[in-house]
């Protein structure tokens, strides 16, 4: 990887330097590898080299039955485990034509939003860290622990909840949990001004992110970028509003699709931050609704051997990082014939080839961090 | 003090090594030296091991989900810095402890080995999470190395998927107990006393040429040898 191309005439043309970043590099938070061709301090070409985290999940789906798939599905994007489980069970339920109890629908919506807050908090903390500000990540993890406590109480897991089942959820919520969840949401909201003022109000932070790494809507469409990154470029697309699943159809007055038009790192961060605020509001709305719902079942009795009928379906959800899709092909067996996974980060990261050339090496970390990716979601 | 003594006496006794192959009944020389080293400079051992176990500069090999729990363990609530684990090592060359947290894939395995070899002695490894212990939920995957101990020696295994931060704290305590028990004779006696090639392979550090060489090939996936 250390090839050097010498130009004709040392003075007229400089020497290109090929710089290898990663696979183990702190700024890539994970094992992404970048191959940069530099011209002095400027990046001329950038090529993400992926596959260091490839675990073959799609092939393993074919060797697991529909109950076991959920367990692998929530691990590819480890920061949004609940939302990943959701895509699988939605696909299987659609294949089976299964109706999910209302309580389960609302609880799923609530947990999906709490998971979104958890995911965004991680990036709200880690992005300033990459830019040199250590403090916010400590705040972020404090809030994360609050929410993780609540999630752990119902599911037993801090990160991988395994709470979704085909046809509903694993079990009903414990007594008094709604109050504790409401308290956790209120606590987190009360301290969100750390990011509003301490981070966004910091002039160094603004100086390092404003106007850096501008992504155009054309590139968004070309590369299939989705999620908060796409919305920061003015691409107003959110599956929760545009193709409502779960209970999002009834939450239209609370749900706010956050968009920006600048498309730079600051806009991406602002999108993420405002989306976190909105997710907290959505969680509150779900909690309100859950207290009004009459008692009832939260899952369905499943047959001993769960088989999806022959056919295909495509279920997609608005994951915290973007659009997550599962293309399920079944031949009527216990296991899927093929379960293709469309993960958000994989497409988002491809935009780096367009985003990085022309920028300075010092800005690379800012741009890379602002793409909010999870390496497991890239490599699957 | 102890180290010097150990090296001196070990280098002075290369003669019984050819005989060691023929008569394996007798205790080999480094072993006897190790006992001596354990007995004589006890205070040195205590001081060295005490210093080592409470200043573990950690190099986080964060690979997957477990890396998030590793970060959670370093944050305010769990805070492993109070145990003397310092997560500010700029790279492997400045680290004493490597925590492999997450799935090691066959593509990543050469880099894991390379970075382990770059760490200076004494070095320790904690395998954090089911994936790096044994492959975990990816036990039948075609792309995953079934346990990081196939590539590098592991001192402490922390089970869980992902393990809680408390589990990491327990793993660190276990490692510190292990360091406290460590005998300097065993650590340095073997490497210094070994002169024949087989013994060098077993205990010695990789040579400078090995460190500067290209990346080693990944270990073969079980079941792929036929192809």
UniProtKB/TrEMBL annotation, chain A:
The keyword Nucleotide-binding does not apply. Belongs to the complex I 49 kDa subunit family. Its EC number is 7.1.1.-. It is a peripheral membrane protein. NDH-1 is composed of 14 different subunits. Subunits NuoB, C, D, E, F, and G constitute the peripheral sector of the complex. It is found in: Cell membrane. Keywords: Cell membrane, Membrane, NAD, Quinone, Translocase, Transport. Residues 131-304, 306-380 form the NADH-quinone oxidoreductase subunit D domain. This is NADH-quinone oxidoreductase subunit D. It catalyses: a quinone + NADH + 5 H(+)(in) = a quinol + NAD(+) + 4 H(+)(out). NDH-1 shuttles electrons from NADH, via FMN and iron-sulfur (Fe-S) centers, to quinones in the respiratory chain. The immediate electron acceptor for the enzyme in this species is believed to be a menaquinone. Couples the redox reaction to proton translocation (for every two electrons transferred, four hydrogen ions are translocated across the cytoplasmic membrane), and thus conserves the redox energy in a proton gradient.
UniProtKB/TrEMBL annotation, chain B:
This is NADH-quinone oxidoreductase subunit B. Residues 65-175 form the NADH:ubiquinone oxidoreductase-like 20kDa subunit domain. NDH-1 shuttles electrons from NADH, via FMN and iron-sulfur (Fe-S) centers, to quinones in the respiratory chain. The immediate electron acceptor for the enzyme in this species is believed to be a menaquinone. Couples the redox reaction to proton translocation (for every two electrons transferred, four hydrogen ions are translocated across the cytoplasmic membrane), and thus conserves the redox energy in a proton gradient. [4Fe-4S] cluster binds at residues 65-66, 131, 161. Binds 1 [4Fe-4S] cluster. InterPro entries: NADH_UbQ_OxRdtase-like_20kDa, NADH_UQ_OxRdtase_20Kd_su. The chain crosses the membrane at residues 54-73. It is an enzyme of class 7 (translocase). It is found in: Cell membrane. NDH-1 is composed of 14 different subunits. Subunits NuoB, C, D, E, F, and G constitute the peripheral sector of the complex. Belongs to the complex I 20 kDa subunit family. It holds the Pfam family Oxidored_q6. Its EC number is 7.1.1.-. The keyword Iron-sulfur applies. Residues 8-24 have a biased composition (Low complexity). The keyword Nucleotide-binding does not apply. Its cofactor is [4Fe-4S] cluster. The gene is nuoB. It comes from Streptantibioticus parmotrematis. Residues 1-26 are annotated as: Disordered. It catalyses: a quinone + NADH + 5 H(+)(in) = a quinol + NAD(+) + 4 H(+)(out).
């Amino acid at each position: 990887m250390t090839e050097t191309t010498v130009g004709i005439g040392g003075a007229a043309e400089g020497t290109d330097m090929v710089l290898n970043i990663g696979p183990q590099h702190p700024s890539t938070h994970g094992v992404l590898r970048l191959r940069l061709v530099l011209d002095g301090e400027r990046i001329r070409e950038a090529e993400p080299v992926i596959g260091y985290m490839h675990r073959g999940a799609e092939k393993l789906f074919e060797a697991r039955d529909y109950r076991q798939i959920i367990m692998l599905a929530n691990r590819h994007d480890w920061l949004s485990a609940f939302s990943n489980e959701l895509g699988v069970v939605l696909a299987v339920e659609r294949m089976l034509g299964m109706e999910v109890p209302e309580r389960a629908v609302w609880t799923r919506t609530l947990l999906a939003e709490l998971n979104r807050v958890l995911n965004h908090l991680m990036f709200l903390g880690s992005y300033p860290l990459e830019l040199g500000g250590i403090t916010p990540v400590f705040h972020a993890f404090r809030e994360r622990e609050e929410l993780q406590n609540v999630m752990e109480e119902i599911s037993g897991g801090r990160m991988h909840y395994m709470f979704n089942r085909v046809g509903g959820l694993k079990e009903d919520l414990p007594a008094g949990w709604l109050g504790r969840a409401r308290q956790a949401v209120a606590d987190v909201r009360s301290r969100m001004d750390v990011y509003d003022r301490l981070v966004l109000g910091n002039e160094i932070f603004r100086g390092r992110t404003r106007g850096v790494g501008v992504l155009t809507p054309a590139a968004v469409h070309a590369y299939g970028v989705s999620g908060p990154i796409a919305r920061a470029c003015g691409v107003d697309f959110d599956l929760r509003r545009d193709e409502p699943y779960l209970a999002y159809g009834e939450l239209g007055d609370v749900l706010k699709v956050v968009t920006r038009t600048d498309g730079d790192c600051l806009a991406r961060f602002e999108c993420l931050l405002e989306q976190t605020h909105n997710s907290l509001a959505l969680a509150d709305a779900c909690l309100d609704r859950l207290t009004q719902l009459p008692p009832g079942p939260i899952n369905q009795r499943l047959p001993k051997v769960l088989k999806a009928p022959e056919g295909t379906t495509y279920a997609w959800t608005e994951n915290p990082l973007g659009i997550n899709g599962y293309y399920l092909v079944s031949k009527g067996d216990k296991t899927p014939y093929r379960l293709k996974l469309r993960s958000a980060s994989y497409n988002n990261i491809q935009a780096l080839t367009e985003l990085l050339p022309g920028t300075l090496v010092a800005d690379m970390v800012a741009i890379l961090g602002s793409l909010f990716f999870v390496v497991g979601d890239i490599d699957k | 003090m102890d180290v010097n003594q150990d090296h001196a006496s070990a280098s002075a006794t290369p003669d019984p090594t050819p005989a060691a192959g023929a008569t394996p009944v007798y205790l080999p020389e480094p072993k006897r030296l190790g006992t001596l080293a354990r007995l004589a400079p006890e205070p040195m051992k205590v001081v060295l091991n005490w210093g080592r176990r409470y200043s573990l500069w950690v190099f986080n090999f964060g690979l997957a989900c477990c890396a998030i729990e590793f970060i959670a363990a370093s944050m305010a609530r769990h805070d492993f810095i109070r145990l003397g684990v310092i997560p500010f090592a700029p790279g492997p060359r400045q680290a004493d402890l490597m925590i492999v947290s997450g799935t090691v894939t066959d593509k990543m395995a050469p880099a894991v080995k390379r970075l382990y070899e770059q760490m200076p002695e004494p070095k320790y490894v904690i395998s954090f999470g089911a994936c790096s212990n044994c492959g975990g939920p990816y036990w039948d995957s075609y792309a995953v190395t079934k346990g990081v101990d196939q590539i590098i020696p592991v001192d402490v295994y922390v089970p869980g998927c992902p393990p809680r931060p408390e589990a990491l704290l327990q793993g660190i305590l276990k490692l510190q107990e292990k360091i406290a028990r460590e005998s300097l004779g065993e650590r340095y006696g073997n490497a210094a006393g070994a002169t024949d090639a087989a013994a060098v392979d077993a205990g010695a550090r990789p040579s400078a040429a090995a460190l500067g060489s290209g990346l080693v090939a990944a270990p073969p996936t079980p079941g792929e040898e036929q192809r």
